[in-house]
Amino acid sequence: MTSRSEPNGRAATHTSPRAAALAIVTVEDRVNERLAAERAGRYTAPAQPMADAWTLVRLLLGGATIPGGRGPWRRAIAGGQRVITMRVAEERPIPLDDELTLEGRQLR
């Protein structure tokens, strides 16, 4: 049994209490378009295991370590600043017995 498996030997699912926490990383490049000759941009990475999210933050900061604190973290870039945030993903599974609708139409 691993830390990601249930006591019954089955793999943990995202709804089980032993499932690894997921995180969402957002990076925003705030630039002066006249100086940088490019537009500002924003990207939100999909939910991923916490260890992978920390690796992404380190990569975006350009270093092997992350400055203390919980963020947001900032780094100078050409013509502006890169701002990186990380938050815990909120998993809200939809119970199978609920009706699913889209714009008033039933999906089941």
Explain the overall architecture:
- The chain has 108 residues and is α+β, with helices and mostly antiparallel strands.
- It has a domain at 22-90.
- The chain has 2 helices and 7 strands; from the N terminus they run βαββαββββ.
- The strands form 2 sheets. Strands 1, 2, 3, 4 and 5 form a 5-stranded antiparallel sheet that branches. The chain has a two-stranded antiparallel sheet with strand order 6-7.
- A hairpin with a 2-residue loop joins strand 4 (73-77) and strand 5.
- The protein is elongated, with a radius of gyration of 19 Å.
- Mean pLDDT is 75; it is low at 93-103.
What are the salient characteristics of this protein?
alpha+beta; two-stranded antiparallel ribbon; 2 helices
Secondary-structure element series: EHEEHEEEE
Number of helices: 2
Give the quaternary arrangement of the chains.
single chain
N/C terminus separation: 37 Å
Q: What is the total tally of β strands?
A: 7
- Largest beta-sheet characterization: 5 strands, antiparallel
* Binned strand content: 25-35%
Could you tell me the radius of gyration in angstroms?
Answer: 19 Å
Helix share bin = 10-25%
Enumerate the spans where pLDDT stays under 50 for 5 or more consecutive residues. 93-103
Query: How would you describe the shape?
Result: elongated
> How would you state the average pLDDT, rounded?
75
The structure class reads: alpha+beta
